[in-house]
């Protein structure tokens, strides 16, 4: 099937062009704030509306700075060595989830240090809202007709206008939107409704995202300048996601064991 015609520019104000991709980030941050405020209003949450706003702001900086650094160092380090100033050319595109995740973890640490809140509790409060941002971001990728999937003959395969080969491919951006976004959000939201050991919600996010991303990588076309790393199947996305699953399981076990012993994490 043909890719639906979508103008990547949502609207223009004079020479200023506002792209759908940028709006998707804004929608994701706004949704995180609204959901965070809702959770803060619950009895005994220990959070205020202002604290939620500050945390979302810290997280947004972590996503943008970490996402850019992650893309440059994980996916295009050679280009950075040739032109170090390219790091700051964010308008040319290039963001990495794994870099953004590291940036967000640093942002959580800075916020916890500033407010005196326990680090893992800060992370556990915020991570259930993160998949909403992932969903809007992946939909932005789809509207940009970028990061498409591998060649396929399934009935819903699409021919993307940015594909030089013009062959039908998996709309892997939508797979990621559903699995990393919608499904993971529902799992984390339901799981976090009841009190959990410190670090458990964050660990479940790590496991869930790592599994979802690794699965979708079998349908997603690897970056052209990287390709497959080994064996004709391993991709950079898998290499960065599989450790998330292992680490998440380890933290989950550690969290519940500490909780049984009454140890505060």
Give the overall form. globular
Largest sheet: 2 strands, antiparallel
In the sheet with the most strands, the strands line up as 1-2
**Total beta-strand segments:** 4
What does this structure look like?
This protein has helices spanning 20-40, 49-75, 77-82, 97-115, 119-126, 130-143, 172-191, 200-216, 236-261; strands at residues 9-13, 16-19, 158-159, 168-169. With 265 residues, the chain is mostly helical. It has one domain (26-261). The strands form 2 sheets. It has a two-stranded antiparallel ribbon. The chain has a two-stranded antiparallel sheet with strand order 3-4. Helix 7 (172-191) runs antiparallel to helix 8 (200-216). The model has no long low-confidence stretch (mean pLDDT 91).
List the helices and strands and how they pair.
Blueprint: E1 9-13, E2 16-19, H1 20-40, H2 49-75, H3 77-82, H4 97-115, H5 119-126, H6 130-143, E3 158-159, E4 168-169, H7 172-191, H8 200-216, H9 236-261
Antiparallel strand pairs: 1-2, 3-4
Helix pairs in contact: 1-2, 1-6, 2-4, 6-7, 7-8, 8-9
Summarize the structure.
Helix content is 60%, strand content 5%. It is mainly alpha-helical and 265 residues long. A hairpin with an 8-residue loop joins β3 and β4 (168-169).
Task: State the main characteristics.
single chain; 265 residues; mainly alpha; two-stranded antiparallel ribbon; 4 strands; 60% helix; 5% strand; globular
